Please model this.
Amino acid sequence: MKEVVSRRLTEVLSPRLGSKRRAVLGRLVDRVAEPIEVSVVVPIFDEEDNVAALIGELTRALEGTGRTYEIVCVDDGSKDDSYARLAKAQASDARIKVIQFRRNFGQTAAFAAGFDFAAGEWVITIDADLQNDPADIAKMLQKAEEGYDIVSGWRVKRKDALLLRKFPSKVANYLIGKVTGVGIHDYGCSLKVYHRDVAKNVKLYGELHRFVPAVAASLGVRVAELPVNHRARTAGESKYGGLAKTLSRTAKVFLDLLTVRFLLSFATRPIHIFGGLGLAASTFGLGLGAYLAIMKVLYGATLADRPLLLLAVLLVIVGVQFITMGLLGELVVRTYHESQGKSIYAVRAVLDDSGSRNAEPRDADHGDSGPTDVEEARDAERRDGP
Model:
């Protein structure tokens, strides 16, 4: 079927197009005839010394899998020569995509952009510092095809500083596993394999890229972990060095963990947490008030100079405020889901009289990620005429 579509497109459109439009059509025909199986997303920030080696290792590793692939490089506002070297690599290999940010938006934004532009059935993320080994991609893909939606790398023998990198990471991984219920040993490893349904439907904000397995697992996604090779950095400078950056990153991880816990448990029912706190505070305040009333009526106690009276009033007021926040949160949640057609559930497959089939994700397209080849050919024909 794909070959028929490709041949028909070429026969109908090619005679009417100029050379530039034929090139666009050529890319379209190639994409229709040979769909991309694997997309590798690489966030890059000031890694000019690693670009050439990274592209070389990725190309060799991906060609060894025998699958069609693309490499999506996201230049996160680099100030060095990274973008120029990426552009040079892209000019010699059409399987490379380069997205350049206007400024540094951070690793999470770079992953989000890579997910938007990725076209493969499997989306792989990897760091640009060459500490992740591209040779592990093949076995991770094999693991994913055993029925897993996410395969996360586990840097068993990590080549990083003990106090500034490995120890904080172990503590963070332990806390994340306990809070989210997804027991992955190494949330911080960027080498991960995602099925397209996951990559296209998990929205990333802030610095939540490391929590994708936990968030996705709450939707019934199957997650696996595989030991991978980890290498020492040989070129460039680490973006996480120094005590100050370590402490800052640890604080951010803790705050992000609170956010993830809230999203996993109360994103669609905020009244349960705010209302619960409000009821607890109001009940305690009313209890104190009843106690003070009994002391006043039965024993004639003086209440004006007792701090318990102020505490009782404060607790009741705070309780009412918490309940009000919960009600407002319910309105916001309903507005969010109903105005945008967001679903509160996730479907893996549908079984009906036509047989079992995979469920199509609602947001599986690229959105506003840019014009497609079809749009480019159509626009070119509209400008120049038949």
Summary: The first helix runs from residue 2 to 13. DSSP finds 13 helices and nine strands in the chain. The mean pLDDT is 82. The chain has three domains: 1-34, 35-263, 270-339.
